[in-house]
Amino acid sequence: MSVGSERAVDAAEVLARADEVATVLAAHARSVDEAGAFPLTGLEALRRSGLMGLLVPREYGGLDGSCSLLSRVAQVLAANCLSTAMIWGMHCQQVAVLVDHAGARLKERALPAVARGDVYIASITSERGKGGHLLTAFAPLTYEDGLAVMRREAPVVTGGAHADAYLTTMRAAPDAPPSAVKLVYTDRSQVAVDERSPWSTPGMRGTESLGISLAGRVPEDQIVDAERGFEQVAVTTLIPVGHIAWASCWLGAATSVYRQVIAMLRDPRQRREYDLHSELFVTRLAEIRMRLDVAGAYLNRVVAEYEDARRSPRAVEAIYAPSFQIHINTLKVHASDSLFEAVNDLMQLVGLRHGYSKTSPIPVERTFRDLRSASLMYSNDRLLIANGKLSLLDGDVTLP
Amino acid sequence: MENTEERIVEIVSRRLKYLRPGQRLSLDEPLKPLGLDSMASIDLLFDLEDAFEVAVGDEDMTEANFLTARTLHDMVVRLRSAPAYGGPQS
Hints:
The structure holds two protein chains of two kinds. Helices cover 53% and strands 13% of the residues of chain A. Chain A has helices at 11-35, 40-49, 67-78, 82-101, 104-116, 230-266, 279-311, 315-320, 322-356, 364-372, 380-391, and strands at residues 121-124, 142-144, 147-157, 165-171, 181-187, 191-197, 210-219, 223-224. In chain A, helix 1 (11-35) crosses helix 3, helix 6 (230-266) packs antiparallel against helix 7 (279-311) and helix 9 (322-356) runs antiparallel to helix 11. Chain B is mostly helical. Chain B has three helices and no strands. Chain B has helices at 2-14, 38-52, 69-80. The A-B interface holds A 263, 266-270, 276-277 and B 43, 46, 49-50, 53-55, 85, 87-88, 90.
């Protein structure tokens, strides 16, 4: 992931590619949602576009994009299909982890294939019984003949049945504590993958986040690590890039339906059932707009803060700072709550026919169902507990 | 045409809070001093769109078009003669 000002491909070119992919996503979003089917056509368009390698450095054939470009592309994609955008965003999150923390040999093997669009990487962090705690793992690695042996079950894996590779959290060894986590990169060809449980949800249906089990053995150089272990991988890359990608997706989706409602209200033929002179009506419109503006401003601010921290000579310390941890967590909590509320309010504003009905040309109800998942993914409750404790360590109350 | 002018004068007059009771708005009287501020212009925009079944695009939301009843009239006539009655331009 680039943090400098030079880019292999300029932002306008990348966004033009995103616009092209977006037309494919728009055409399939409804059917993907109705069938609860993984968006294979959309993913294929992403593979061809080069955007799967957005964060891959130029030396490995990627677009060398920055985190702020990731955020902008995610918004464009999510404006058309939130499921596909989230699949892509989480793939980019895995790519960022490889770029920041993988060893040279693994990078040389994996990143050119990612840049070519040949490899879509899924994330496996969920595990029964650990309550969504990212920094622990139960299933242990064992070692045989210089290979790491893994056997792992995961209840929720976005795109698990369709990924070409996985990044999986494992306990370091059978006698290690659950907090000793190793992150293992696995090619699909190195593991047997079985589907265990279906993904049947009201929203985010296209992510096909099945329960899967996976078993296989990989060379030890496929373990992705850092000086302070997996915690550093998570704190400096996995969590911030993930939260930025998610918040960007949610913002793109919520803004898109708002934009479509505004267009409807500006069309004299379509707005007849709404009273634009009603103060209640325009007040509600303003409150929704305010949620979008605040979420967008906070997102941009935290992206800039993250990029500044990454450029700092003491980058790890800057990202570990309680104030940055609070801000990145707040980004996720605020975006997930506020943007869901924005769409909920939008549904109230436009009513049954244009808001609640599946037959509306504006996908307010699909976006409502999709965004309901936002506070549940990497649960807000857990993040607020963390932020409360971190707040006690930031006596200066450093605002973003 | 005259009928359109009269209707526009009537519609615009309703949005002019400083127009005195009984005062007749002339076609060329500047609207801003009579109370057509930016908020009133938005209300007026919707009034005109609904009354004349035109869509006023963002590019027409200009001070020049909202200067007088006559400039508004010219805008409405131009939009009505547009080939299709489409939605707002973006």
